[in-house]
Design a protein that fits this description.
105 residues; alpha/beta; Rossmann fold
């Protein structure tokens, strides 16, 4: 499997940073090469314009942005999904990582 770039978007980019670290640990344990990073909703456009992204995950608190993000990345074929609220609340990095990798297949 080639390296996967996973972008998480949340309101301020803060709450997802802990989830990023848990996802990175899960990826390392699984031997999966990833570039996982979190940005605020305000920063998302500039990252999408400057960095190749395989999967875009939205924090539950910004799920209202899903349609807007889907239309922004439609021509790039990037899957967009809202992170499961339970996995987000429990900071279940393994589960979120597995879902992101499944979306990028």
């Amino acid at each position: 499997m080639s390296m996967k770039t996973i972008m998480l978007v949340c309101a301020a980019g803060m709450s997802t940073s802990m989830l990023v670290s848990k996802m990175e640990k899960a990826a390392e344990a699984d031997g999966v090469e990833t570039d996982i990073f979190a940005v605020s909703a305000n920063e998302a456009d500039s990252y999408l314009a400057s960095k190749p992204v395989d999967v875009l995950l939205l924090g539950p608190q910004v799920k209202f942005l899903k349609k807007q993000m889907e239309s922004k990345v439609a021509n790039k074929g990037i899957p967009v999904e809202v992170i499961d609220m339970r996995d987000y609340g429990m900071m279940n990095g393994k589960s979120v990582l597995d879902r992101a990798l499944a979306l990028s297949e």
